[in-house]
Amino acid sequence: MTQRSVTRTTVGIVGGGPAGLMLSHLLARAGIDSVVVERRTRREIEETVRAGILERDSVRLLVDSGVSDRVLREGHEHRGIDLRFGGTSHRIDFQGLVGASTWLYPQTAVFVDLAEARERDGADVRYGCADTAVVDLTSDRPGIRFTDADGVGQEVRCDFLVGADGSRSMCRQEVPEPERRQFFREYPFAWFGILAEAPPSAPELIYSHSARGFALISQRTETVQRMYFQCDPEEDVDAWSEDRIWEELQARVAGEDGLRLNEGLIVDKTVLRFRSFVCEPMRYGNMLLAGDAAHTVPPTGAKGLNLALADARVLAELLERAVRKNDPDVLDEYSPRALARVWKAQHFSYWMTSMLHRLPEASDFDVRRQLGELSSVVESRAGSTYLAEAYTGWPSL
Ligand code: DHB
User: Fold this and answer.
1) Nearest Cα to Cα of residue 17 among 45, 52, 41
2) Ligand 1: does its nearest atom lie under 6 Å from the Cβ of 142?
3) Probe ligand 1: pick from 50, 53, 220, max atoms within 8 Å of CB?
4) Going by fewer Cβ within 10 Å, which terminus of the chain is more open, N or C?
């Protein structure tokens, strides 16, 4: 076998999505070097349509850490959302309730900003790598072996290894089964997501409960909109013509106020299956898990990306302390601190999902109860405040 080229670094990061790149960026600011190894090409990541809402502190992190302030120029501040049920909209006023906003700014744009910042700062990020494997995990010099985009065998040796390699994480599988607990919840529905060339239908997002199931009216730009409707996990996108999609979406937001969505050419159709998942702990020796590698949430409430960025922030802070003090025990704090936020987000995503979606076997009782729950939220300052607080994001500690 030909000789592998070996690179030595302090933190080896598997995964160049938002969690991995943000971590690498924050570490660099603290003077700590890292190497990022990513399976996909930059182009592949940029072309994947993902969620679009950033919490207040995610925006602050991007701007204050010097990634980019593009979010403030090109993103859209949303000072609330509409919960729609019984055919009318009820605004949750984030600013009035908790003095915070969210920003509509797609994950793809976050990735582009992070990738550009890493390139600008001369980081070592390898995209398009194959056959990635972790070696000598329990030693004090764990490694990442892979074949780079040019087909050359590579090895990265590090002090700390981070698995930020997404929901199908290879790194997570390296933790021996007795050392990890996994928590799952499946849902009997999925989202049918579209991108449409049309002007926005509303100034903010609309989360709509309806007899036909949930719909979410989101946005991307002045001319492109993102919308979703609850569907069967096995739904075939090709069975849905443009007319049928618009009819379904219109029916799910219809009401006495006469709300109509602006229709247009549908340029993307995908079914997003979802589930809740947590792997505990998020550390195994000198390996730390971050982002989707450790947890996934159902999309309702858009917490996935925000959790990934929050993990990166906590992990960067602790790795910096561990390196400075030459004391890996500092990392004991990581899992409990990250998981405290993860479980709050799990609850919030589960709650939003179950309050707004129609279960396949839903009885009239179940639907009336959901309407009672929605009324309790929108008619009560306490109820609305919980939603506003969770949606805009718990403060970073
Ligand atoms: C979007 C996705 C979400 O899951 C959500 O809750 C809000 C917005 C989006 O893709 O725009």
Assistant:
1) 45
2) no
3) 53
4) N
Tell whether ligand 1 has an atom less than 6 A from the beta carbon of residue 300.
yes
**CA 21 to ligand 1 center in whole angstroms:** 22
Determine the distance separating the centroid of ligand 1 and the alpha carbon of 70, expressed in angstroms. 19
Report the DSSP pairing between strands 153-157 and 143-147: antiparallel
Q: What architecture is the 5-73+105-183+277-351 domain classified under in CATH?
A: 3-Layer(bba) Sandwich (3.50)
Six-digit token string for 40: 């996909």
185-275+358-392, CATH topology level: D-Amino Acid Oxidase; Chain A, domain 2 (3.30.9)
* Residue 119 CA from chain centroid, whole number: 23
- Closest to 179 in 3D by CA, of 131, 138, 139, 136: 138
**Active-site residue, selected from the candidate residues 105, 127, 187, 207:** 207
Contact present, 302 and 52 (Cβ < 8 Å): yes
Domain ranges of the chain: 5-73+105-183+277-351, 185-275+358-392
Burial grade of 321 (CB within 10 A; 0-12, 13-18, 19 or more): middle
